[in-house]
Amino acid sequence: MKKVTPVLMAIVFCALLLAGCSISSQSRQGQPLAVYSFSGENEFISVSNGVIVLDAEEEICYGGNLETRKDKFTDIASYSATIYLTSDGEENILMSNRVEDKTGGAINISEDIGKITGDILIPDDIDNLVDGLWFELKTVDLDGEENTYHLQLEVIEITRANDNLPSAY
């Protein structure tokens, strides 16, 4: 009996996990396809070619390309790039990447920001997407000096299919 209990508990745990996954995908059923493009720039950095795709199968956030605009980014030892939504003074991080050079050299931060798939947005976030999407770049140079740069991103709705269908959003 003592050997059966852990096996039974493991089976129950797996069943609960599978049920949770089923509920999550059911909540997205009927969600219309929506594609958003985003970009932005200021005197220090620019983000271009970012895309968010929302549909019933999966959500994708491709962060686009990061480029620096000043020579002050030549001695960077590490950085983090974060895309987030603001709503009622709160930040909801959609994706965040960190790069660090452990050899003591400088790294180039003008590159692809990255991509994430999965349940990225909650339904309430869709309303804030166009006006509340931000990019944050945190850098640490070779001397250990930290800098943070914020950039509000311009979001354009490219397409939204099946607007007449009821959706989870």
Unreliable sequence segments? 1-28, 164-169
Rg calc:
20 Å
Total helices: the number is 2
Q: Please summarize the sheet with the most strands.
A: 6 strands, antiparallel
Average pLDDT number: 78
What is the total number of structural domains?
2
- At CATH level 2, the architecture of the largest domain is Sandwich
SSE order in H/E notation?
HEEEEEEEHEEE
Could you please say which CATH topology of the largest domain applies here?
Answer: Immunoglobulin-like
- CATH top-level class of the largest domain: Mainly Beta
Principal-axes shape call: elongated
Terminal residue distance: 48 Å
In total, how many beta strands? 10
The fraction of residues in strands falls at 35-45%
**Given the helix and strand composition, which structural class is it?**
alpha+beta
Helix content: 10-25%
Question: Which structural traits does this protein have?
Answer:
Immunoglobulin-like; 2 domains; 6-stranded antiparallel beta sheet; 4-stranded antiparallel beta sheet; 45% strand; disordered C terminus
Secondary structure topology:
Blueprint (H helix, E strand, L loop, with lengths): L3 H25 L5 E8 L3 E10 L4 E4 L2 E4 L7 E12 L2 E11 L14 E4 L4 H10 E9 L4 E7 L1 E7 L9
Antiparallel strand pairs: 1-2, 1-10, 2-3, 2-4, 3-7, 5-6, 5-8, 8-9
Structural summary, described in words:
The chain has 169 residues and is α+β, with helices and mostly antiparallel strands. The protein folds into 2 domains: 1-30; 32-160, Sandwich (Immunoglobulin-like). Helix content is 21%, strand content 45%. The protein is built from 2 helices and 10 strands, in the order αβββββββαβββ. The strands form 2 sheets. Strands 1, 2, 3, 4, 7 and 10 form a 6-stranded antiparallel β-sheet that branches. Strands 6-5-8-9 form a 4-stranded antiparallel β-sheet.
